[in-house]
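Reply to dn_fold:

You asked what the input looked like. This is it:
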Amino acid sequence: MAMVLNFFDGVGELLRKGLTDYEIVSSMPVVLMWEKMIPFVEGTRKAYNDTSFWANFEYFYNETKKRQQQLASKTA
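and this is what came back:
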């Protein structure tokens, strides 16, 4: 689980810093993975009182959801 979390967190960091283009990483199952990992992430954040755990993964997820909503509004 840690490997998956850290992998997506790393991709999210690259995306946040502009070191990769969203189109390159858009085919990754970020929504599925984030939604499966939420209980663990929230538990870890609560246990350590630190919301920065996997914040870049969450950023990647939020960017993906935002783009999905934009695409849906264009096609509706």
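The chain has a mean pLDDT of 96.
Hope that clears it up.
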